[in-house]
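User: I'm writing a tutorial on reading structure tokens. Could you give me a worked example: one chain, its sequence, then its tokens, then a sentence or two explaining what the tokens reveal?
Assistant: Sure. Here is the example chain.
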Amino acid sequence: MEKERVSYFWKRTERGGKVKRIIIILLSTGMMLLLAGLMVYFIIKHDTLRWGIAAGGIVLSALPLGLLFLKHNRINTPSIIGWYIFVICSICLGSIAGFYGRFSWWDTSVHFYKGIFTACIGVTLYKILVPEAARRGMSRLIPALFALGLAIAGSVLWEMYEFLGDVIASHTMQRGGNTDTMVDLLAGFFGGVLIAIYTGFRKQNV
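And here are its predicted structure tokens:
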């Protein structure tokens, strides 16, 4: 009976792994082709800023392909899909379609989502890196603080990226100056707090 349960578990895991690989390949390929087409279009239009953004989006869309080379990819499917949602909202809609300039709330919303997303990745990494036996004896604050810490780190790194982008090329990513930076950091922080609170209450299932 035990052997049958183990066999069923591994068959289910293998099927899940195949589905996950298909999702990564389809979404990465689709996003890269879309952004490559936009890059060519903006090159023809001599729009230096937007073809550069599209090129960066191609790189971001290709990153999940690296998971295909892992023997056991334990990043869950919702997290993978969440990454592409971030690329679409930030690169495609925010920068290329101009939502950042058209809608004052768009930038803050994307940063809030990013805080939620990176905190969720933190929970996933906690489950991967900490053995189940060790997790049972830990305080519920540990996974919550780990998730929040990753959300804050992600927000800080993104603001560094925006700052360097303005210094090197665009001069448009931090048009609000210090206020823009602090609002973005607060949005990412509160997104992380939301997941940290949820993780703390749901610790027994983490």
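What the tokens reveal: The mean pLDDT is 82. The chain has eight helices and no strands.
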